[in-house]
Protein: Methionine aminopeptidase 2
Amino acid sequence: MAPKKNNKKAQSKKTASKPAATADDDDAFLDALLEEMKQKKISEGESGDGTTSSSESTAPEISPDDDEGQDQPGPIVVDLALPTDGTPAKQTSPPRVGLSKIFVDRRYPVGETSTYTYGEENLKRETDEEKRALERSKEAEQKYEELRRGAEIHRQVRKYAREHIKPGMKMVQIANMIENGTRALSEGSSLKDAGIGFPTGLSLNDCAAHYTPNKGDTTVLKASDVMKVDFGVHVNGRIIDSAFTMTFEEGKYDALLDAVRDATNTGIREAGIDVRLCDIGAQVQEVMESYELELNGKTYPIKCIRNLNGHNILPYRIHGGKSVPIVNNGDTTKMEEGEVFAIETFGSTGRGHVVNQGEISHYAMNADMGNAPVRLNSAKSLLNVINKNFGTLPFCRRYLDRLGQDKYLLGLNTLVRQGIVDEYPPLYDSPGSYTAQYEHTILLRPTVKEVLSRGDDY
Ligand SMILES: [Co+2]
Structure:
């Protein structure tokens, strides 16, 4: 996500408005899936869907039906034909196998690591016995595995999404595709122990951030659109925040995407223990603004969106209070050992500045205000639902719908007015402009820097 001056992102989790499905429900659901798999085999490839998933080409396929249409609560974790002898399972397509079934030893892939390359103290970190011992502590190990598990879920879910998102799909189908994958792979027994880290951002074109469809939104993805896919996964409150940009017309926006990918990787490269935030912003801006995009015979300089920024991440809090600028803003605050940062940059063909616009979908409880007194009954009961299901993790209106909440807008707006819940409106650059985003979550380990969410895609 991309905090502006308020910083937070969205998240959510799923839960069941109904109590967990009964065994009968589960069986019926599985039977239906298996039946559909059989039929699929018989009539191979209606719409050329014979794709692969995960790193193998042999992933079982299951029906993607639950990615379409309305978002129905119901069983999401499908232990489809899983080996029972302790051998690792394969991911399905769409992804529905919990990650613990694939990584049976619960060791998740380590992100991309690099050594700290500056400062006398930092140069020695990788081999420093004291620093190495820090990383072997139980506490550190658990934190790393939770973060790496979230990152692997992100990679597997986005792999399927990148292969299957196509113009003509409704935005709500795209959101469900990503969110149902995240729910299944993260195996959360409640929304708060693992699942969606914040609402799935699917911001289009001049909208840079914080758009996700609300109920009744009929927007359809167009071939000419530039879509930022910004989604989050959390495991025990450890949030992975990572985003990429999708386009569908060969080559048309490549220079814009190249600029932002390059800028984000620059921010990642510059980040480190004791580094000043303003210095990262300066490097990012220099790289971003060295690009231009030629579109319909006109040349557009790519600008950083100067009022968007990266941020540190705390348990259950997508914005921990430090902002990582993407221009030189003079902030001399330093990054510190052990911190988790979302490094994200935004490039634009517009003015490079966003404003609030359009219907709000993203909200989060204000971490400092959760206990404030609420008089209005509808607001009070809604606050209980929010507190119980999301805590301070960001959520969107669809997640409330999914929990069976109805006619909650008055209550929600009351909580916003009282400062108990913060709202995060969609953020737009100038009309007709195109904006792009890339984002990774990094961890400043005592010995090395780890880019947790790095994949072979970006
Ligand atoms: Co973010």
